[in-house]
Backbone:
Protein backbone atom coordinates (compact mmCIF):
# COMPACT_ATOMS: atom_id res chain seq x y z
CA UNK A 1 0.00 0.00 0.00
CA UNK A 2 2.82 2.34 0.96
CA UNK A 3 4.57 1.70 -2.36
CA UNK A 4 1.37 2.32 -4.30
CA UNK A 5 0.90 5.64 -2.51
CA UNK A 6 4.48 6.66 -3.31
CA UNK A 7 4.03 5.58 -6.92
CA UNK A 8 0.88 7.68 -7.30
CA UNK A 9 2.59 10.67 -5.69
CA UNK A 10 5.60 10.35 -8.01
CA UNK A 11 3.36 9.97 -11.05
CA UNK A 12 1.33 13.06 -10.18
CA UNK A 13 4.53 15.03 -9.48
CA UNK A 14 6.15 13.97 -12.77
CA UNK A 15 3.09 14.85 -14.84
CA UNK A 16 2.52 18.09 -12.96
CA UNK A 17 6.15 19.11 -13.24
CA UNK A 18 6.17 18.22 -16.94
CA UNK A 19 3.11 20.34 -17.68
CA UNK A 20 4.49 23.26 -15.65
CA UNK A 21 7.81 23.01 -17.48
CA UNK A 22 6.15 23.16 -20.92
CA UNK A 23 4.01 26.14 -19.91
CA UNK A 24 7.01 27.90 -18.35
CA UNK A 25 9.22 27.44 -21.41
CA UNK A 26 6.46 28.63 -23.77
CA UNK A 27 5.62 31.70 -21.69
CA UNK A 28 9.23 32.76 -21.14
CA UNK A 29 10.21 32.54 -24.80
CA UNK A 30 7.01 34.24 -25.95
CA UNK A 31 7.80 37.17 -23.69
CA UNK A 32 11.44 37.07 -24.72
CA UNK A 33 10.54 37.14 -28.41
CA UNK A 34 8.09 40.01 -27.89
CA UNK A 35 10.79 42.09 -26.16
CA UNK A 36 13.35 41.30 -28.86
CA UNK A 37 10.87 42.19 -31.60
CA UNK A 38 10.26 45.55 -29.93
CA UNK A 39 14.03 46.16 -29.82
CA UNK A 40 14.48 45.15 -33.46
CA UNK A 41 11.58 47.35 -34.60
CA UNK A 42 12.97 50.37 -32.75
CA UNK A 43 16.66 49.71 -33.39
CA UNK A 44 17.03 53.13 -35.04
CA UNK A 45 16.10 54.76 -31.73
CA UNK A 46 19.38 53.70 -30.12
CA UNK A 47 18.62 55.07 -26.67
CA UNK A 48 15.29 53.24 -26.45
CA UNK A 49 16.79 50.03 -27.85
CA UNK A 50 19.66 50.19 -25.35
CA UNK A 51 17.29 50.73 -22.42
CA UNK A 52 15.13 47.82 -23.50
CA UNK A 53 18.18 45.62 -23.98
CA UNK A 54 19.41 46.35 -20.47
CA UNK A 55 15.98 45.57 -19.03
CA UNK A 56 15.93 42.37 -21.03
CA UNK A 57 19.36 41.35 -19.73
CA UNK A 58 18.17 41.79 -16.12
CA UNK A 59 14.95 39.90 -16.87
CA UNK A 60 16.83 37.03 -18.49
CA UNK A 61 19.20 36.73 -15.50
CA UNK A 62 16.21 35.90 -13.30
CA UNK A 63 14.56 33.50 -15.75
CA UNK A 64 17.84 31.77 -16.57
CA UNK A 65 18.22 30.41 -13.04
CA UNK A 66 14.95 28.54 -13.27
CA UNK A 67 15.79 27.36 -16.77
CA UNK A 68 19.10 25.90 -15.72
CA UNK A 69 17.32 23.86 -13.06
CA UNK A 70 14.90 22.27 -15.52
CA UNK A 71 16.47 22.26 -18.98
CA UNK A 72 19.70 21.31 -20.68
CA UNK A 73 22.13 24.22 -20.34
CA UNK A 74 23.46 23.76 -23.87
CA UNK A 75 20.20 25.13 -25.29
CA UNK A 76 20.46 28.47 -23.49
CA UNK A 77 24.12 29.06 -22.74
CA UNK A 78 24.70 31.46 -25.64
CA UNK A 79 21.73 33.72 -24.95
CA UNK A 80 23.46 35.84 -22.33
CA UNK A 81 26.48 36.33 -24.61
CA UNK A 82 24.29 37.41 -27.53
CA UNK A 83 22.41 39.89 -25.33
CA UNK A 84 25.73 41.36 -24.21
CA UNK A 85 26.79 41.65 -27.86
CA UNK A 86 23.57 43.46 -28.80
CA UNK A 87 24.14 45.89 -25.93
CA UNK A 88 27.75 46.43 -27.02
CA UNK A 89 26.80 47.12 -30.64
CA UNK A 90 24.09 49.54 -29.57
CA UNK A 91 26.51 51.30 -27.25
CA UNK A 92 29.02 51.88 -30.06
CA UNK A 93 26.23 52.83 -32.44
CA UNK A 94 26.50 49.86 -34.81
CA UNK A 95 22.79 49.38 -35.50
CA UNK A 96 23.25 46.86 -38.30
CA UNK A 97 25.16 44.36 -36.18
CA UNK A 98 22.75 44.94 -33.30
CA UNK A 99 19.89 44.13 -35.66
CA UNK A 100 21.66 40.96 -36.90
CA UNK A 101 22.12 39.62 -33.38
CA UNK A 102 18.60 40.59 -32.37
CA UNK A 103 17.15 38.68 -35.31
CA UNK A 104 19.41 35.73 -34.46
CA UNK A 105 18.10 35.72 -30.91
CA UNK A 106 14.52 35.90 -32.17
CA UNK A 107 15.22 32.73 -34.15
CA UNK A 108 16.62 31.15 -30.96
CA UNK A 109 13.39 32.07 -29.18
CA UNK A 110 11.47 30.12 -31.81
CA UNK A 111 13.88 27.19 -31.86
CA UNK A 112 14.47 26.50 -28.16
CA UNK A 113 10.82 25.98 -27.18
CA UNK A 114 10.46 23.59 -30.11
CA UNK A 115 13.54 21.62 -29.00
CA UNK A 116 12.34 21.37 -25.43
CA UNK A 117 8.66 20.80 -26.17
CA UNK A 118 6.82 17.49 -26.23
CA UNK A 119 6.81 16.32 -29.87
CA UNK A 120 6.61 12.81 -31.23
CA UNK A 121 9.93 13.22 -33.08
CA UNK A 122 11.61 13.93 -29.73
CA UNK A 123 10.11 10.81 -28.20
CA UNK A 124 11.33 8.69 -31.08
CA UNK B 1 33.77 19.97 -8.37
CA UNK B 2 31.52 20.65 -5.40
CA UNK B 3 28.57 20.59 -7.78
CA UNK B 4 29.48 17.09 -8.92
CA UNK B 5 29.95 15.98 -5.30
CA UNK B 6 26.55 17.31 -4.24
CA UNK B 7 24.81 15.87 -7.31
CA UNK B 8 26.34 12.45 -6.73
CA UNK B 9 25.25 12.54 -3.07
CA UNK B 10 21.72 13.62 -3.93
CA UNK B 11 21.33 10.98 -6.64
CA UNK B 12 22.78 8.27 -4.39
CA UNK B 13 20.34 9.06 -1.56
CA UNK B 14 17.37 9.08 -3.92
CA UNK B 15 18.51 5.79 -5.50
CA UNK B 16 18.68 4.21 -2.04
CA UNK B 17 15.11 5.29 -1.38
CA UNK B 18 13.90 3.98 -4.75
CA UNK B 19 15.67 0.59 -4.37
CA UNK B 20 14.22 0.30 -0.88
CA UNK B 21 10.74 1.05 -2.19
CA UNK B 22 11.14 -1.49 -4.98
CA UNK B 23 11.53 -4.24 -2.41
CA UNK B 24 13.80 -7.12 -1.42
CA UNK B 25 13.42 -8.99 -4.69
CA UNK B 26 15.44 -6.31 -6.47
CA UNK B 27 18.35 -7.21 -4.27
CA UNK B 28 18.00 -10.95 -4.57
CA UNK B 29 17.03 -13.12 -7.49
CA UNK B 30 15.78 -11.02 -10.35
CA UNK B 31 13.13 -11.78 -12.89
CA UNK B 32 13.95 -10.55 -16.42
CA UNK B 33 11.91 -7.35 -16.21
CA UNK B 34 13.44 -6.57 -12.81
CA UNK B 35 16.95 -7.09 -14.19
CA UNK B 36 16.18 -4.64 -17.01
CA UNK B 37 15.00 -2.01 -14.56
CA UNK B 38 18.01 -2.45 -12.29
CA UNK B 39 20.46 -2.07 -15.18
CA UNK B 40 18.61 0.96 -16.54
CA UNK B 41 18.54 2.69 -13.18
CA UNK B 42 22.31 2.38 -12.88
CA UNK B 43 22.82 3.98 -16.30
CA UNK B 44 20.27 6.72 -15.72
CA UNK B 45 21.77 7.70 -12.39
CA UNK B 46 25.19 8.20 -14.00
CA UNK B 47 23.97 10.65 -16.63
CA UNK B 48 23.49 13.78 -14.49
CA UNK B 49 26.05 12.77 -11.86
CA UNK B 50 29.09 13.96 -13.75
CA UNK B 51 27.53 16.17 -16.45
CA UNK B 52 26.67 19.48 -14.77
CA UNK B 53 25.04 20.91 -17.92
CA UNK B 54 22.24 18.36 -17.49
CA UNK B 55 19.69 19.05 -14.75
CA UNK B 56 19.45 16.43 -11.99
CA UNK B 57 15.79 15.99 -12.91
CA UNK B 58 16.85 14.47 -16.27
CA UNK B 59 18.23 11.50 -14.32
CA UNK B 60 15.73 11.36 -11.49
CA UNK B 61 12.51 11.59 -13.48
CA UNK B 62 13.33 8.48 -15.56
CA UNK B 63 14.23 6.65 -12.33
CA UNK B 64 10.93 7.59 -10.70
CA UNK B 65 9.16 6.59 -13.92
CA UNK B 66 10.83 3.17 -13.82
CA UNK B 67 9.74 2.73 -10.22
CA UNK B 68 6.14 3.53 -11.15
CA UNK B 69 6.29 1.15 -14.13
CA UNK B 70 7.87 -1.56 -12.01
CA UNK B 71 5.11 -1.29 -9.45
CA UNK B 72 2.44 -1.31 -12.13
CA UNK B 73 3.92 -4.43 -13.79
CA UNK B 74 4.35 -6.17 -10.43
CA UNK B 75 0.72 -5.55 -9.52
CA UNK B 76 -0.54 -6.85 -12.87
CA UNK B 77 1.76 -9.91 -12.64
CA UNK B 78 0.41 -10.68 -9.20
CA UNK B 79 -3.16 -10.57 -10.49
CA UNK B 80 -2.94 -12.30 -13.87
CA UNK B 81 -1.07 -15.58 -14.30
CA UNK B 82 -1.15 -15.20 -18.10
CA UNK B 83 0.62 -11.85 -17.92
CA UNK B 84 3.14 -13.28 -15.46
CA UNK B 85 3.93 -16.12 -17.87
CA UNK B 86 4.29 -13.67 -20.74
CA UNK B 87 6.65 -11.48 -18.76
CA UNK B 88 8.74 -14.05 -16.89
CA UNK B 89 8.32 -17.23 -18.89
CA UNK B 90 7.77 -20.65 -17.32
CA UNK B 91 10.12 -22.86 -15.32
CA UNK B 92 11.49 -25.77 -17.35
CA UNK B 93 12.05 -29.29 -16.07
CA UNK B 94 15.54 -30.32 -17.17
CA UNK B 95 15.84 -33.55 -15.20
CA UNK B 96 12.55 -35.40 -14.95
CA UNK B 97 12.38 -38.41 -12.65
CA UNK B 98 16.12 -38.95 -12.91
CA UNK B 99 16.24 -38.56 -16.68
CA UNK B 100 17.86 -35.58 -18.45
CA UNK B 101 15.40 -34.09 -20.95
CA UNK B 102 17.66 -33.26 -23.90
CA UNK B 103 14.80 -31.75 -25.94
CA UNK B 104 14.14 -29.15 -23.23
CA UNK B 105 17.86 -28.42 -22.95
CA UNK B 106 18.14 -27.82 -26.71
CA UNK B 107 15.11 -25.55 -26.62
CA UNK B 108 16.78 -23.48 -23.91
CA UNK B 109 20.21 -23.54 -25.64
CA UNK B 110 21.52 -25.16 -22.50
CA UNK B 111 24.60 -27.36 -22.59
CA UNK B 112 25.52 -30.22 -20.30
CA UNK B 113 28.25 -27.94 -18.94
CA UNK B 114 25.58 -25.47 -17.86
CA UNK B 115 23.56 -28.27 -16.30
CA UNK B 116 26.51 -29.71 -14.41
CA UNK B 117 27.50 -26.27 -13.17
CA UNK B 118 23.97 -25.71 -11.87
CA UNK B 119 23.91 -29.09 -10.18
CA UNK B 120 27.31 -28.58 -8.56
CA UNK B 121 26.19 -25.16 -7.26
CA UNK B 122 23.30 -27.01 -5.59
CA UNK B 123 25.71 -29.54 -4.04
CA UNK B 124 25.19 -32.49 -6.42
CA UNK B 125 28.06 -33.82 -8.49
CA UNK B 126 26.23 -36.35 -10.57
CA UNK B 127 22.82 -36.25 -12.31
CA UNK B 128 22.11 -39.75 -10.98
CA UNK B 129 21.83 -38.21 -7.49
CA UNK B 130 19.03 -35.97 -8.70
CA UNK B 131 15.34 -36.81 -9.18
CA UNK B 132 14.24 -33.44 -10.58
CA UNK B 133 16.06 -30.32 -11.69
CA UNK B 134 14.04 -27.27 -12.68
CA UNK B 135 15.43 -24.20 -14.41
CA UNK B 136 13.55 -21.30 -12.83
CA UNK B 137 12.54 -18.13 -14.64
CA UNK B 138 15.28 -16.17 -12.88
CA UNK B 139 17.94 -18.54 -14.24
CA UNK B 140 18.51 -20.48 -11.02
CA UNK B 141 18.46 -24.28 -11.04
CA UNK B 142 16.29 -25.87 -8.33
CA UNK B 143 17.21 -29.45 -7.49
CA UNK B 144 15.29 -32.23 -5.76
CA UNK B 145 17.59 -35.10 -4.83
CA UNK B 146 16.69 -38.71 -5.53
CA UNK B 147 15.35 -40.75 -2.62
CA UNK B 148 18.70 -42.60 -2.32
CA UNK B 149 20.70 -39.41 -1.83
CA UNK B 150 18.16 -37.21 -0.04
CA UNK B 151 19.22 -36.20 3.48
CA UNK B 152 17.44 -38.10 6.23
CA UNK B 153 14.70 -36.18 7.96
CA UNK B 154 12.73 -36.86 11.14
CA UNK B 155 9.76 -37.69 8.90
CA UNK B 156 11.61 -40.38 6.95
CA UNK B 157 12.99 -41.83 10.19
CA UNK B 158 9.50 -41.72 11.69
CA UNK B 159 10.85 -39.87 14.69
CA UNK B 160 9.22 -37.02 16.60
CA UNK B 161 11.77 -34.19 16.72
CA UNK B 162 12.08 -31.57 19.45
CA UNK B 163 10.11 -28.43 18.66
CA UNK B 164 11.94 -25.77 16.72
CA UNK B 165 11.84 -22.17 17.71
CA UNK B 166 13.20 -19.08 16.12
CA UNK B 167 16.38 -17.72 17.69
CA UNK B 168 16.34 -13.99 18.44
CA UNK B 169 19.25 -11.62 18.72
CA UNK B 170 19.27 -10.07 22.17
CA UNK B 171 22.61 -8.22 21.99
CA UNK B 172 24.29 -7.30 18.74
CA UNK B 173 27.71 -5.64 18.75
CA UNK B 174 27.26 -4.25 22.24
CA UNK B 175 23.74 -2.95 21.63
CA UNK B 176 20.79 -4.37 23.55
CA UNK B 177 17.70 -5.14 21.44
CA UNK B 178 14.91 -4.60 23.94
CA UNK B 179 12.20 -5.42 21.39
CA UNK B 180 13.52 -8.98 21.03
CA UNK B 181 13.83 -9.30 24.81
CA UNK B 182 10.12 -8.52 25.08
CA UNK B 183 9.31 -11.12 22.40
CA UNK B 184 11.25 -13.74 24.38
CA UNK B 185 9.65 -12.54 27.65
CA UNK B 186 13.15 -12.19 29.03
CA UNK B 187 13.62 -10.02 32.11
CA UNK B 188 16.48 -7.64 32.81
CA UNK B 189 17.35 -9.80 35.83
CA UNK B 190 17.78 -12.89 33.65
CA UNK B 191 19.95 -10.97 31.20
CA UNK B 192 22.11 -9.56 33.99
CA UNK B 193 22.49 -13.06 35.46
CA UNK B 194 23.81 -14.40 32.14
CA UNK B 195 26.20 -11.48 31.77
CA UNK B 196 27.44 -11.80 35.38
CA UNK B 197 28.00 -15.56 34.96
CA UNK B 198 30.22 -14.86 31.96
CA UNK B 199 31.84 -11.79 33.51
CA UNK B 200 30.63 -9.51 30.72
CA UNK B 201 28.97 -6.18 30.27
CA UNK B 202 26.47 -5.44 27.46
CA UNK B 203 29.15 -3.45 25.61
CA UNK B 204 31.53 -6.43 25.69
CA UNK B 205 29.12 -8.77 23.91
CA UNK B 206 29.51 -9.33 20.17
CA UNK B 207 26.42 -11.52 19.85
CA UNK B 208 23.89 -13.00 22.26
CA UNK B 209 21.18 -15.14 20.70
CA UNK B 210 18.37 -17.04 22.41
CA UNK B 211 15.42 -19.07 21.22
CA UNK B 212 12.05 -19.37 22.94
CA UNK B 213 13.21 -22.46 24.81
CA UNK B 214 15.97 -20.42 26.42
CA UNK B 215 18.82 -22.08 24.47
CA UNK B 216 21.36 -19.98 22.72
CA UNK B 217 24.89 -18.72 22.78
CA UNK B 218 26.89 -15.73 23.79
CA UNK B 219 30.15 -14.51 22.33
CA UNK B 220 32.16 -11.57 23.53
CA UNK B 221 34.13 -9.31 21.22
CA UNK B 222 37.39 -10.99 22.25
CA UNK B 223 36.32 -14.48 23.34
CA UNK B 224 34.92 -17.77 22.05
CA UNK B 225 31.20 -18.59 21.83
CA UNK B 226 29.65 -20.15 24.92
CA UNK B 227 26.38 -22.12 24.94
CA UNK B 228 23.81 -20.90 27.42
CA UNK B 229 20.52 -22.13 28.79
CA UNK B 230 18.00 -19.98 30.63
CA UNK B 231 14.62 -20.87 32.00
CA UNK B 232 12.66 -18.04 30.40
CA UNK B 233 9.54 -18.98 32.33
CA UNK B 234 11.16 -18.00 35.66
CA UNK B 235 11.52 -14.31 36.67
Residues:
Amino acid sequence: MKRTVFAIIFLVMIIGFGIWEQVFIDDVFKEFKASLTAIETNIDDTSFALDETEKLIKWWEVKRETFEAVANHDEIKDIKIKLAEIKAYLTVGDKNMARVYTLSLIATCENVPHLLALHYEHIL
Amino acid sequence: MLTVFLRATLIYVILLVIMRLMGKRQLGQLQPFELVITLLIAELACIPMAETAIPVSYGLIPIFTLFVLHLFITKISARFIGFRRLLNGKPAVIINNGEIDYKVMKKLDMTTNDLMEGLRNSGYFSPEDVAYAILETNGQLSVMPSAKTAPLTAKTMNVEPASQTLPYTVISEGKLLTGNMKLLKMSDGQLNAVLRENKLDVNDVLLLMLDENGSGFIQSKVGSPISININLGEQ
